[in-house]
Specification:
- This is Dual specificity phosphatase 16.
- By secondary structure, this protein is of the alpha/beta class.
- It has 7 helices and 7 strands; from the N terminus they run βαβαββααβαβαβα.
- It has one domain: 3-Layer(aba) Sandwich (Oxidized Rhodanese, domain 1).
- It has a 5-stranded parallel β-sheet.
Amino acid sequence: MAHEMIGTQIVTERLVALLESGTEKVLLIDSRPFVEYNTSHILEAININCSKLMKRRLQQDKVLITELIQHSAKHKVDIDCSQKVVVYDQSSQDVASLSSDCFLTVLLGKLEKSFSSVHLLAGADAAEWDWLCVKCQQHLSKA
């Protein structure tokens, strides 16, 4: 398999420990569709979900992953290649189950070229990490 070495898994408890050590040491990427991200996401996560066009541009190296991160962030992100990167989506259980052509595989591969530590949140089920999430609608209604 072409994506055998892409990313390692990380469990929710380990993510919590990383976040408690300082959010500046962790780059969280939510690769779910924007509507799901906008409804609820882990605090400080950057939403990166791509169209077929953007996936192709990443595959052809016409856009750098660091540019995509900056473009997708709501604020300027200090990118440091020593940061730990944790990616999650709505249903991926492990790296081995990903097809070699899916967006998540492409994303993980590009991240590994720029960062030394890239992880997929294991069993990324919203029920497991829901307590880490920002409930955007509730937050907006209080503002």
